[in-house]
Amino acid sequence: MKLSTAALFFIPAVVAFAPPQAAFRSNPALFATETAAEKTTFSKMPASVKPGVVTGKALVDLLQHAKKEGFAIPGVNIVGTNSINACMEAAKKYGGPIMVTFSKGGGQFIAGKAADNSDDAASIAGCVAGAKHVREVAKLYGVPVVLHTDHCQKAWLPWFDGLIEANEEYYKEHGEPLFSSHMLDLSEESLEENIGICKQYMERMAKIDLLLEFELGVTGGEEDGVDNSDVDSSRLYTQPEEVYYAYKELGSVPNAAFTCAASFGNVHGVYAPGNVELKPEILHNTQAYIQEKEGSDDSKPMLFVFHGGSGSDVKDIQYAIEAGVVKMNIDTDTQWAFWDGVREYEATNREYLQGQIGNPDGADKPNKKYYDPRMSLRAGEEAMAARLCQAAEDLKCNGVLN
Ligand SMILES: [Zn+2]
């Protein structure tokens, strides 16, 4: 714990959270338990990364490991237990970590559309409930799970505040935050204001081992009710100086851990071919710029994340991963996959789904086993999980545990 502060100060990107129990190391009994727990669970992962929700030092270890090994974790928007479980089912199948991502709208949906959402109460409660669901079941899948929240613009900060409070409460009881990380997207504001607000939150988050994802530039397109489809195209490409400014500012916070969603022509949603011009070289140039400024040995000092990856060319995705992208968001493609599974189920069983009684096998035959909601929802889950296995392959995130 003591040694980390100085190291952190000089190399802000290579952050390490102090383990919460570090203060008890002098107690031999606790030390023994901790040593036993430090055993490697996954042969190809850092020892701190274990099945279940990954936070703090283990999360930073996981992301740095991904950067070093050249893979990115799928960050998947979910809307309920069906999509959450599909994520973990996929991760178990492809043998890698997964990031379960709650949006403000997704959280509200989990709480229920009829729930009172004054002051974002339902959005907060739904995210917290979803996070607790993941915490209860994640270990049963035997994979590392990152609990994250998506875009939060300035007007949505009350939602963010509610989530941070939930983390602080959880931390008091468990010595770790409820979530692994949260995103602040203040890219609509000036660079100074964006990073200024991020820094204030970073100070609060660093105290409870939470990682911050921030955004520079603007991700185009439309997602979760935010429409950036008409934004000036120059803002779709981040400048290296801007990233370095953020790196220095956030890196000056003790125990800070952060990732950067720098726009490089990416957009939310799927568009006709030719409409999206990705320039992942922006990320490569930015890493080189920061390395030079810092005189660092690390050729990739920044941890990047990739928004709006749906529909992107695999070559572009993998070139971005080479530039230090450790997570790619997936929403549009898994939305389609889930629906496509339900659609196909209905198409296959249509004649058994037209009434409670009566189908091609007989006018008095019951259809209960066809219209049981678990049947169509399960078809959605399976299709979503299959799509995620493909995404994991694109991101080289398959078979990275053992
Ligand atoms: Zn996004």
TrEMBL record:
Cofactor(s) the protein needs: Zn(2+)
Broad enzyme group: lyase
Q: What is its EC number?
A: 4.1.2.13
Pathway of action: Carbohydrate degradation; glycolysis; D-glyceraldehyde 3-phosphate and glycerone phosphate from D-glucose: step 4/4
Its GO biological process terms?
A: gluconeogenesis; glycolytic process
An annotated GO cellular component: cytosol
Q: Where is the signal peptide?
A: 1-16
Q: Name one GO molecular function term.
A: fructose-bisphosphate aldolase activity
State the family it belongs to.
Answer: Belongs to the class II fructose-bisphosphate aldolase family.
Q: What is this protein identified as?
A: fructose-bisphosphate aldolase
Q: Which organism is it from?
A: Phaeodactylum tricornutum (strain CCAP 1055/1)
- Report which gene this protein is encoded by: FbaC1
